[in-house]
């Protein structure tokens, strides 16, 4: 094992030009942590935010970005239940924020956030999945307790998590109602499993209740707190809405009046989960469903080589192509 590795390590905030490949020390295994040889990783909006210096309080410089990875176990402590050579994915848990992440040839992560798997799918497919499938699945199950036969409104359907949530909801046996602001995205949503598509003009509740007069069983909010009251009005009494994301950037409200915002008898939850919310058995099922063509992963573009992180982040900022940008390492 070489003492150094190639990585993208930020010394401070900056533009895409700050994403330069350098040599840094290879992380050393310690108790409770395993080292993964990175094969592929998804590039995320949160990493663009971190690069700009607008990260969450747990972020500090210098830092190797990257909140998810797919690869092979390279080294483990003696007490580990994992073994070198196993294919694994990992995500979240402070990765790329409070400790170094996946924009590197190797990443050291807590064993508890590692999911082993066996699959013939290529790394460019598996590398796209960890964060968006964990977030989507966790939102649908932990956040909404979605059941087969129920209806779920997915507001922000053309986002990576939205497209994944549509596919996973369909796989769970639910009816998915997806939203988009652009009518030309309807075909994309239906390709991923949407049963109904609603054009989001900022006022959805009436349109959803035209389809389901009593309201939907559940709703996944990915657009923001400013539209959450409207989303809640689309949910039936006894149903649940889960706030997971804010594509529009509104994460907090200056004033919040529960009696004015939350309809009587409607449950409101939030989801900000971890890798443990995606059990290995569930991930194995999802990989098999992809292999069989029952789930279509939302992949926008595959980039090859660490130096291509620049183009991946630039493509994310333009926002022209829905889906995940994936970087594959040789």
Automatic annotation (TrEMBL):
Cross-referenced Pfam families: ADH_N (PF08240), ADH_zinc_N (PF00107)
Alphabetized InterPro entries for the sequence: ADH-like_C, ADH-like_N, ER, GroES-like_sf, NAD(P)-bd_dom_sf
A GO MF term: oxidoreductase activity, acting on NAD(P)H
Keywords of the record: NADP, Oxidoreductase
Residues of the Enoyl reductase (ER) domain: 14-327
SUPFAM superfamilies in UniProt: GroES-like, NAD(P)-binding Rossmann-fold domains
Protein's recorded name: NADPH:quinone reductase-like Zn-dependent oxidoreductase
Gene source species: Spinactinospora alkalitolerans
């Amino acid at each position: 094992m070489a003492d150094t590795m190639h990585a993208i390590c930020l010394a401070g905030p900056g533009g895409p030009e700050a994403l330069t490949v350098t040599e840094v020390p290879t992380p050393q295994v310690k108790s409770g942590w395993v080292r993964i040889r990175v094969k592929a990783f998804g590039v995320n909006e949160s990493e663009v935010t971190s690069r700009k210096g607008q990260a969450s309080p747990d972020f500090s410089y210098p830092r190797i970005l990257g909140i998810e990875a797919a690869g092979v176990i390279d080294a483990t402590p003696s007490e580990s239940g994992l073994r070198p050579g196993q294919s694994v994915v990992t995500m979240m848990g402070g990765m790329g924020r409070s400790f170094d992440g996946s924009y590197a040839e190797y990443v050291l992560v807590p064993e508890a956030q590692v999911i082993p798997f066996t699959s013939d799918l290529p790394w460019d497919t598996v590398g796209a999945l960890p964060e968006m499938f964990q977030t989507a699945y966790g939102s649908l199950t932990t956040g909404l307790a979605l059941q087969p036969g129920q209806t779920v409104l997915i507001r922000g359907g053309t986002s990576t998590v939205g497209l994944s949530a549509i596919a996973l909801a369909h796989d769970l046996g639910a009816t998915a109602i997806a939203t988009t602001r652009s009518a030309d995205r309807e075909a994309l949503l239906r390709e991923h499993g949407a049963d109904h598509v609603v054009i989001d003009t900022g006022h959805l509740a009436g349109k959803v209740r035209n389809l389901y007069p009593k309201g939907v069983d559940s709703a996944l909010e990915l657009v923001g707190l400013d539209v959450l009251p409207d989303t809640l009005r689309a949910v039936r009494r006894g149903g649940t809405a889960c706030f997971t994301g804010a594509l529009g950037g509104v994460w907090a409200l200056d004033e919040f009046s529960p009696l004015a915002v939350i309809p009587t008898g409607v449950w409101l939850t939030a989801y900000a989960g971890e890798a443990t919310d995606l059990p290995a058995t569930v991930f194995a099922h999802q990989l098999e469903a992809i292999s069989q063509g029952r789930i279509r992963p939302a992949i926008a573009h595959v980039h090859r080589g660490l130096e291509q992180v620049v183009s991946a982040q630039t493509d994310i900022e333009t926002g022209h192509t829905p889906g995940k940008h994936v970087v594959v390492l040789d």
